[in-house]
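Hi,

I'm pasting everything inline rather than attaching a file, because the server keeps stripping attachments. The sequence lines come first, and each chain or strand is labelled.
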Amino acid sequence: MFKELLRKTYQWAQKKSLWVIHFNTGGCNGCDIEILDLLTPRYDIERLGIVAEASPRHADVLLCTGPVSRQAKTGLWQIYSQMPSPKWVVAVGSCSCTGGVFKGSDTILGGIEKILPVDVFIPGCPCRPEAIINGLLKLQERISVNEDK
Amino acid sequence: MKINNLDALRKSMADSLKVDCEVYRGIDGDQTLRIPSAELKRVVSFLVDQMDCRHLSTITAQQRVEDPDQIEVIYHFWHGISFSIMTMVSEELPRLPEIVSILPGADFYEREVAEMFGIEFVGREETPPLLLPDDWDQGPPFIRNEDHRE
Amino acid sequence: MNKISIPIGPQHPLLKEPLSMQIDISGEKVLGGSLRLGYVHRGIERLAEQRTYVQNVHLIERICGICSHIHTTTFCHAVERLLEIDVPQRAYYIRAMMCELERVHSHLLWLGIIAKHVGLDTIFMHTWHDRELALDIMEELSGGRVSHATNQIGGVRFDLTDHQEAMIRTTITDLSLRVNNLLDVIKNEPALQARTRGVAKVSPEMIHQYCVVGPVARASGVDVDFRRDDPLPPYDQLDFNVITHNDGDAWARTVIRAEEARESLILCERILNEMPDGPVHVRAPRRVPEGEVVIRSEAPRGELFYYLRSDGSDKPARLKIRTPTLAALSLLPKQLSSIQVADIPVVMAGIDLCIACADR
Amino acid sequence: MIEAWFYLLFFPGLIFQVICGLIFEWLDRKLLARFQRRVGPPWYQPLADMVKLFSKEDLLPEGVNDLVATLLPIVSLSAILTAGLYIPIAGFSPYSFEGDLIVILFLLSVPTLAYYLAGVVSVGIYSTLGGGRSLLQFFSYEVPLLIALSGPAILSGSWSVKQIMVSQATLGPFILFQPLGFLLAIVGLIGKLKRDPLDIPKAKSEVVGGPLTEFTGAKLAFWHLGMNIQAVLGIFLLVNLYLGWSKGANPLLTIPVFIVECLVLVVLLSGASAIFARLRIDQLAGLGWRILVPLGLLQLGFVILMGV
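And the predicted assembly:
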């Protein structure tokens, strides 16, 4: 019984305190500005307990933007492997979901899911800050629903 | 010394440098002078030193469908008016003199043209890739045997 | 002290976009640095040759999120000049206003970034909160906060209703109040000055050598502004003053961008007053007659250069784009030789890097 | 014996200080957010962060001595907790003895050394750089802090915090006699806690996470907890040394006054972190030695003249 209670509190804590790290894998920086906009007074994700972190070691969620360019591919994998589990990946913007408007270019792989297991896709080019917050809230629900990752 | 129009520039280049250059094609809003590729370095140093025209906007390289084995390299300058210097290079032996020693600003543009069109700039110590990924193995992307405009 | 080299890798809190640098330091002094671009290279020029002109307007807009409008404006001007169609004056004025609003939003964004790197998070928050007003205007007009899909070949997609015009005027006055307030805060904020004054001085000689453009050049006294030197249509009838400083250090670059944001707001007001009536769009044929054209315009970061060659079909034969950040990036390794480790953020932010622009 | 356990575990000991640390972190982040026109985190945020960190996997890059890396946060946290036992809270302090001010100051500087060692032990470039900076910063703020804190001790003629606090009842709060000393103590405290104007060792945009870049999971939780509790103890120390009052008054009055004084200091600290930009390390060293130390000596001289 104690194990169940511990798991529940862990899930509550993971849900309520998401530490985010942002990596742009080669897109136009439209989505990146909207992600930075989340920190500013109008959207302010700190009230949801979400804080932007500097080092992959401290982060739980990897917010990626951009169609994975071949040069940034190794960097993306390095960051994901440095993050302690349980960790989640959120693909922000149409480029990171499917390659978006740059589909067909020979230097991009088109989409984060080709490299990393993605938990939440947020479409939009660029996606609005409200959409990113909605995606993060969906990630929070997803954390509290499924068993420990 | 301001360059008011291109003919004055062409005359001064012709007599001072003994370089035969003819107006290649008056691009709308921009005049182009064609010079043999060997004379490139002298012309650019003449422009930079005597004419004090030092703003090189960029270096464009392209291939025209009508003569596929020639690569056209255009140096776009800006000095009050916009004009450019153009040379032709053959695709089998793409070699051009470098102008980084005269204009350090041209470094990035030369590296980009070198990796995109496979042109070798003689005289540069090293031409590291600028934009293409490290694991790029398909040769210069703009030079493809089949027409890449499918 | 032993010489070690710090990798500022593709992911770093300093960089919004991936760029890898190797900076060699000994102790706290920086010796030099090397740069590796290419993380954001999507081959826009090759993609553009596989798409029609109409599709290209959407592709060109996604080169860079901060200065998307100036890219489409320059591209549309190039195609319109090849087509020799005369676009209604009202369309030019709407384009110019969106360009100026984009300059305001880009400069305010940058001011927040440099304050954040110097440790002044409060100014970052307040600057970006004020910047939301500029985004509100652009969203009100075009529906999009960042990429606005304003331009199409032959004109603009929307027209200004009176209600929108009234809203713009009130928001602009409110925004210019805040920008003036911000300028005062920056001018007599001792800590910000302590961190930026005299850091990474750039002489006009270096500017000429590396053909640097935009606010970085103007901060060192080189008076180059392509809205005035080679004006696209609406700017030849508008008068505005170009701000230059002389001491060329990180402090001059900070103040010049804040003043340019204020100047752009005044210009927006003037554009609104002098905007003629008339249609906003004229039909443009799909096929562009054969020809080449060179267009230069003033992006928030400097001279944006477009070379377009068409061969009569509905796809461009060759499109060459040179963005201002590429010129400024060649200056970066040279600036790193005389600073401390703690100054790296100030110097890198001073050049207002837009890697998506530089890598295309 | 039971009473000793109670003191150790509950009142001035572990539980009380952890709760105070969490409350301080929430207050600090909330005030900072309100200064920046933001809403700020909910009240349970620090608790959620702490519990989440315990649930995280504990990674360390290879080549890092695992034992040392786990011991460091525990050593620094325990040093801080023991320092907390000697600081009187609202006039009540079970273990105070003559000279406990010196013990407190020593115990409060142990975490800084542990912080430096954390930077050295985790091999990454940013950690060693951050570690080096934290040592550099240690020398530039510690001396002014010690000078400032020895002022009240000299004025009241004793080195026990409780004694100093009580003697202020007769002489009046020391802040009136040493406003400069109080300011120096605040700057020294900000430097010790590596808070915003002087967070050079862990500056986000320069050295990523500083020495803590490589720490994850429970170790990171201990570090954060240690930082917060150290802040709370610093505030308690300053309140006792500068805003003391007579011991005799009934607790109903002293506790609210004590809380209000602490809140004032918290507002002061987060205000400072919201307003000032981060100094460069050489500027800080310059500031420390050229300005803070002379001022401290001046203040000390004034106190000695006045005291005699």
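Chain A touches chain D through 22 residues (CB under 8 Å).

If the labels don't parse on your end, tell me and I'll reformat.
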